[in-house]
């Protein structure tokens, strides 16, 4: 069963993010070094016996809508629990050390914790796009400061993400918006990332243009708003991560990840010799069936038309997303992995120029990687969330 992510948003105003393709001069592209990795031929399965820690469920710690797990020094980790707008610190044994935050608009309060990241010295930066705000907490979870996010360019939309560099600099993205008519082909919406100091001072007035995600802009009856914006079936989505003071970007167009300066100049390209998979007729039919079956009875006709007119790409993305660990290794989640049977991750090590394939357990979503440990969230048969930590270097 392919990855299915149809959006159910139908709106009446034609305001969406426009496509933006990152611009690089011929000189900067030519100067980029290419690091080649051979496709691993063996897949190492991570087994339950490799689990080092589990928090949640029977031990009385409850989670609801975890959006981030941030590894810290000495095995500790911060969990962002968006359901209660709390952040919780656990030590290496899984013992709760502190819990801070709640819903609200005041200092240390949040509308929606979409993401969190580590800053130097085990401080934490919290991304709240609904409140359009960045918050910084000290290592004990105490509120240090916050600053509002307003797009520093005309036509800027909502905040799309935050990336924390090792020197304390923050990169904050904003969607690019403009009126758009229905399109017969897929549209790659754009975003722009700007550098801020940890105190919220804008440091790059021009910004770094990058793609964000692919969509299908479809005409619908005026009674339903006139225009619908759907996530493109098998569409690409940009991942942006930090490695020390470098910025890493990739959307799965191919098995490549670009290593950039904070200003966007590509210095290295990490390339894995692995093919992408085609979108087959069976994939399209499976997508249509899932969309229709998950729709309300009154929306079945809309879902059928959307699936039939969807501009399906010829190939699937190479990977869904990627992450970076504290050793600078890249972890890429293969797009073709099946959630019900587990996920396939390819780890690229720039130091040795080697690649390793690891199969992680079903119903498990990794959020953070540190040394030989993977920090993630596992959902049991009742859909209850548990934080689990696995040791993987022995695989």
Helical content band? under 10%
Backbone CA Rg? 21 Å
- Form type: globular
Strand percentage: over 45%
Give the overall average pLDDT. Answer: 90
Give the end-to-end Cα distance, rounded to a whole number of Å. Answer: 27 Å
How many strands in all? 31
Largest sheet: 7 strands, antiparallel
Contiguous low-pLDDT stretches (5 residues minimum) are 1-28
Number of helices: 3
- Counting helices, strands and paired strands, the structural category is mainly beta
Structure explained in plain terms:
The chain has 395 residues and is mainly beta. The chain has 3 helices and 31 strands. The strands form 7 sheets. Strands 1, 2, 16, 17, 18, 19 and 20 form a 7-stranded antiparallel sheet that branches. It has a 5-stranded mixed sheet with strand order 3-24-23-22-21. A hairpin with a 4-residue loop joins β7 and β8. α2 runs antiparallel to α3 (300-309). The longest helix is centred in the last third of the chain and has 13 residues, at 281-293. The model is unreliable at 1-28 (pLDDT under 50).
Task: Give a quick set of tags describing it.
395 residues, mainly beta, seven-stranded antiparallel sheet, five-stranded mixed sheet, 3 helices, globular, disordered N terminus
């Amino acid at each position: 069963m392919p990855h299915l992510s149809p959006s159910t948003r139908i709106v009446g105003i034609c305001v969406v993010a426009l496509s933006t393709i990152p611009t690089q001069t011929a000189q900067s592209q030519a100067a980029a070094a290419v690091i080649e990795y051979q496709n691993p031929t063996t897949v190492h399965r991570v087994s339950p016996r490799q689990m080092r820690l589990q928090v949640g469920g029977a031990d009385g710690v409850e989670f609801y809508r975890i959006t981030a797990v941030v590894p810290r020094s000495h095995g500790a980790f911060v969990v962002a629990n968006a359901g209660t707008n709390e952040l919780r610190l656990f030590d290496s044994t899984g013992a709760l050390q502190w819990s801070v935050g709640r819903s609200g608009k005041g200092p240390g309060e949040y509308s929606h914790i979409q993401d969190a990241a580590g800053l130097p010295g085990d401080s934490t930066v919290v991304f709240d796009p609904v409140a359009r705000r960045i918050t910084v907490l000290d290592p004990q979870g105490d509120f240090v400061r916050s600053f509002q996010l307003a797009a520093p360019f005309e036509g800027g939309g909502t905040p799309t993400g935050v990336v924390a560099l090792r020197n304390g600099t923050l990169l904050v993205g904003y969607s690019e918006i403009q009126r758009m008519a229905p399109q017969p082909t897929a549209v790659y919406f754009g975003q722009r990332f700007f550098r801020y100091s940890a105190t919220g001072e804008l440091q790059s007035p021009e910004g770094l243009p990058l793609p964000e995600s692919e969509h299908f802009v479809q005409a619908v009856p005026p009674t339903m708003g006139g225009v619908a914006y759907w996530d493109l079936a098998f569409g690409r989505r940009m991942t942006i991560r930090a490695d020390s003071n470098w910025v890493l970007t990739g959307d799965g167009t191919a098995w490549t990840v670009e290593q950039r300066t904070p200003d966007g100049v590509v210095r290295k390209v990490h390339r894995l010799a692995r093919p992408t998979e085609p979108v087959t007729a069976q994939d399209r039919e499976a997508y249509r069936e899932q969309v229709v079956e998950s729709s309300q009875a009154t929306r079945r006709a809309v879902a059928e038309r959307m699936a039939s007119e969807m501009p399906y790409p010829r190939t699937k993305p190479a990977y869904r997303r990627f992450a970076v660990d504290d050793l600078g290794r890249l972890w890429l989640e293969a797009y073709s992995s099946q959630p019900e049977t587990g996920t396939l991750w390819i780890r690229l090590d720039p130091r040795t120029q080697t690649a390793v394939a690891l199969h992680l357990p079903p119903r498990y979503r990794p959020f953070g990687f540190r040394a030989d440990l993977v920090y993630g969230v596992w959902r049991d048969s009742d859909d209850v969330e548990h934080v689990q930590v696995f040791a993987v270097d022995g695989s």
